[in-house]
Amino acid sequence: MAHFSEQVHISIGSFTQNVVYYDLKLSQKMADHHHFSFVWQYTGKAIINPADQAKALRSYLGDEVIFTFKSLTGIRLMSKGIITELSSVDLHGSAVGLHVSGVSHSIVINDIKKARAFKERSMDDIVLSIFAEGPGEFYQRDSIKSTYLKEFPNILQYNETSFEFLKRLATRYGQWFYFDGMRMQYGQTKTSKTVLINGASLHSFKIQANMVSHKIALAGYDYNNAANIQNAATKTSVGSKDSFASNVNYNQGTVTNAELSSGVYTVNAQNKEEIDEMIQLQTAGNDANSVYYSGISYFPIGLGQVFTIQNQTVQHELIAIEVTHHSEVHGNYSCEFKAIPADVAAPHYTDVHVFAKAENQPAQVKDNNDPEGLGRIKVQFYGVSSNIVSEWIRMIQPHSGAGKGFYFIPEIGEEVLVGFEGNNVQNPYV
Q1: Which CATH number does 361-429 carry?
Q2: Could you please report the per-residue DSSP string of 353-380?
Q3: pLDDT one-digit tens code per residue, 362-414
Q4: Is it the case that residue 38 has pLDDT exceeding 50?
Q5: Would you place residue 77 in the very low, low, confident or very high pLDDT band (cuts 50, 70, 90)?
Q6: Element (H, E) at 60
Q7: Whose CB has fewer CB within 10 Å in the chain, the N or C terminal residue?
Q8: Which residue intervals define the domain Gp5/Type VI secretion system Vgr protein OB-fold in the entry (predicted)?
Q9: For the chain, what are the domain ranges?
């Protein structure tokens, strides 16, 4: 364990004195909130008056906490959060401090579940509009650079918080999504000049290679062209050049067979282009789990930070996907990290199968004049904000050919019952 003088500093919003603490732990993870805890000796008194303790419990709940980690070489990392829990710490029947727990500012967009639609918006536009609902210093425009550049005709945030919605988008479309300690990041990682030398600034270094199948086969249906769609791949063609990841990719034949004809049906692809993108993205995401690097650093490493490990003559360029900062007592610091190769083509949590699940529900017809003559209608769902009207929705008709069954279109203003193919909120039918 390294002993640096004044390498850890904590400030608490309305507390003007030096914060004396012990047992500090700050856990950070991609596509998740950060969590921290420490014991705060907020007074130098040997015995704390119960009235003073009660006042402290009331005064500091909800305050902002800023952590500053520094190394002797000048590396500096800051992180902040909100105190969400305070509990008294007693020793032999006397109050000696407060146990402080809290969460990152990302929690502000995880406050309430919503149902709303984003029509004809790019991913960056959607992310920026949601981040703008948070506090002023919650994000910077330059930090929002998604790699998915297509415009969404109509995408729904359905019965999920804004954080859950953005996490689903990041997972489905392979975007880096994380709170870097101070601001939200979406789409890109952050470079640095930090170099950890194994045996010096780095200890307990571990490499874990994982030989698991990267194979995926998908099938779907394109109703606009009345065509079956499918694609499959045994491994990615855009994988990491890391030697361990390359070895896992090269030897995929040891854990898979060559058969690719039987694909799982997906409700996330509406055409051949989308299913091809899903295959490329998922194999890249699988490749990102080929090798994990972990260790204990005495230099502060930030979540989403690209850094280098020097292991004798071998270098590894990595991105931190999990970090836990520790400080047992004042000025005593280390951080545990988990990392993957920095050149992966998609995040390790990529999952092209995710979608928001919906149940049958009523809606009101808003338009029945389908320009393509396919008998579709537009509806407005009850409770969806902004009075947004759906895209053209297919109807189930009791018509099976010439002279068989009948065919009808509901009138504007009438109520219909809407179901969802595979329970996917993006695939409604009437």
Answers
A1: 2.40.50.230
A2: T---B---EEEEEEE---TTSS--BEEE
A3: 999 999 999 988 889 999 988 766 567 889 999 887 766 677 777 788 999 99
A4: yes
A5: very high
A6: helix 50-60
A7: N
A8: 362-430
A9: 2-107, 211-287, 361-429
Taking the CA atoms of 168, 170, 173 and 174 in sequence, report the sign of the dihedral they define: negative
Confidence of residue 2 (pLDDT cuts 50, 70, 90): very low
Q: Return the CATH fold of 2-107.
A: Thrombin, subunit H (2.40.10)
Give the separation between CA 292 and CA 190, rounded to whole angstroms: 19
pLDDT for 3 beyond 90: no
Question: Averaging pLDDT over each range in 69-73, 88-92, 149-153, 387-391, which range is the top one?
Answer: 149-153
- In three state form, how does the secondary structure of the chain look? CEECCCCEEEEECCECCCCCEEEEEEEEECCCCCEEEEEECCCCCCCCCHHHHHHHHHHHCCCEEEEEEECCCCCEEEEEEEEEEEEEEEECCEEEEEEEEEECHHHHHCCCCEEEEEEEEEHHHHHHHHHCCCCCCCCCHHHECCCCCCEEEEEEEEEECHHHHHHHHHHHHCCCEEECCCCEEECCCEEEEEEEEECCCEEEEEEEECCCCCCEEEEEEECCCCEEEEEEECCCCCCCCCHHHHHHHHCHHHCCCCCCCCCEECCCCCCHHHHHHHHHHHHHHHHCCCEEEEEEECCCCCCCEEEEEEECCEEEEEEEEEEEEEEEECCEEEEEEEEEECCCCCCCCCCCCCCCECCCEEEEEEECCCCCCCCCEEEEECCCHHHCCCCCEECCCCEEECCEECCCCCCCCCEEEEEEHHHECCCEEC
Rounded Cα distance, 141 and 131, in Å: 10
Query: By mean pLDDT, which of 92-96, 228-232, 252-256, 295-299 is the weakest?
Result: 92-96
| Distant-in-sequence, close-in-space partners of 181: CB < 8 Å, separation ≥ 6 | 28, 34, 67, 77, 78, 79, 80, 104, 302, 303
**pLDDT (0 to 100) of residue 92:** 65
Q: Which of 231, 229, 253, 250 minimizes the C-alpha distance to 239? A: 250
18 secondary structure, DSSP code? P
Report the residue count for the chain. Answer: 430
Q: Which two tokens stand for residue 156?
A: 């729904």
